[in-house]
Amino acid sequence: MEISLNLYNEDGKINSEKLAKATDAILKGIARINTLSLREEQGRSKGGRRNVEASLLLAADRRAGRSRQENNSHQEIIERQENLLRNYAKEKGIWFSEAEIKENSLIQLPSGFESNVYVDPKGVHVIKVIDYRILDNTPQSFIDNRISLYNSEFQETFYELIGFTENNGRFKVIVKQSYIHARSLDFNTESDLIF
After folding, report:
1. Model confidence band, residue 12 (pLDDT cutoffs 50, 70, 90)
2. Is residue 32 within 8 Å of residue 61, measured between CB atoms?
3. Does residue 23 have a pLDDT over 60?
4. Beta strands in the chain (DSSP E)
């Protein structure tokens, strides 16, 4: 079954009951959004309830979705998608400040250009605060490609979407991933060389 529900009330607010039902159907595997293949859609579910909800909201909004991109400027689409996700996150209590994430983590790991990485208090997961615009052009593209598609290919190290934030005027996506403990290789030590 494909999801084609209107998830917004007449006033433009999210219909939480419809969103919950559609999300449950997708998580149970009896429905799908239909922007990815069947196998790839399983990666969307692996990204957690928030990943599915965000995907549904973006797909259901006719002004923000892919089908409207030819009639709107690229920047208008980005702003619309960010605003939808910002409102959703604040309504669901998943709008976080990066300062809070940093405060509540064990340590901040060396970070890359696109994300800041923190170890959760239990040392089991890393929390990544990702500037989606570094490699994707819209939040919807990031969720589809960098979370859902990634999860379908790399199931052992999947991303779970846990929220959103804004830092220095940049909208960011927050994901959780298992913390893979490793050691640095020393290529000057014979035991670290692979033959």
Report:
1. confident
2. no
3. yes
4. 108-109, 115-119, 125-130, 160-167, 170-178
